[in-house]
Specification:
CATH architecture: Sandwich
Shape: globular
Strand content: 25-35%
Order of helices and strands: HEHEEEHEHEEEEE
Structural class: alpha+beta
CATH superfamily: Carboxypeptidase-like, regulatory domain
Number of strands: 10
Oligomer: single chain
Radius of gyration: 19 Å
CATH topology: Immunoglobulin-like
Protein name: Carboxypeptidase regulatory-like domain-containing protein
Number of helices: 4
Low-confidence stretches: 1-32, 34-44
């Protein structure tokens, strides 16, 4: 009897816990870290996007370099609920320096929320890499520092895109950091 009572109590406790798997959301996601080519309009936030709370930190960005001799390389893929890997073929990987401004966008993206487009001044510090036919990418000419490396994968069929995949990476001057962007 004690064994069944223990199992029952454990079951009741675990009922409140939820594992958040990498489930696929078939609705299109509008997620932005910092996109270099987007134009920021003077209109209010587009429908469905949350307003930025952190103003552009001019002094924080002024202390950053735009170019350097570091490299970030890696591979982008998504593990579908079936267990199959879907590689990010011909995708764009964004590489944004870690700042208070980009941290707000990364946090929103990981929560599945789209945020207002980035200030054009922030986009000047964002680097991009394109994946090859197997999901590999390389970004050269980066300044040493900490970065948010982000991308998503186009899913087969009419299933939309994977959730945003973001990893924080540190790379030193003249070094290469390798990252596997997977979820």
């Amino acid at each position: 009897m004690r064994r069944y009572l223990t199992l029952l109590i454990t079951g009741v406790i675990l009922t409140g816990c939820q594992a958040m798997g990498p489930g696929v959301d078939s609705t299109p996601q509008r997620v932005e870290i910092i996109e270099r080519g987007d134009e920021r309009g003077e209109q209010p936030s587009p429908s469905g996007r949350i307003a930025r709370q952190v103003p552009f930190p001019e002094q924080e960005y002024a202390a950053l370099s735009k170019h350097g001799n570091a490299t970030i390389s890696g591979r982008l893929y998504y593990t579908a609920p079936s267990g199959d890997r879907v590689y990010g073929v011909n995708e764009v990987v964004s590489i944004a320096p870690v700042t208070t401004y980009s941290a707000e966008a990364a946090e929103a993206a990981l929560a599945g929320k789209a945020i207002e487009p980035a200030d054009p001044r922030a986009r000047e510090y964002t680097h991009q890499a394109h994946t090859d036919g197997q999901g590999y990418f390389t970004a050269n000419g980066l300044p040493a520092g900490d970065y948010y490396v982000a991308g998503s994968v186009r899913l087969p069929g009419a299933n939309g895109r994977s959730p945003i995949i973001i990893h924080q990476v540190h790379v030193g001057a003249g070094q290469t950091a390798r990252v596997t962007l997977n979820r």
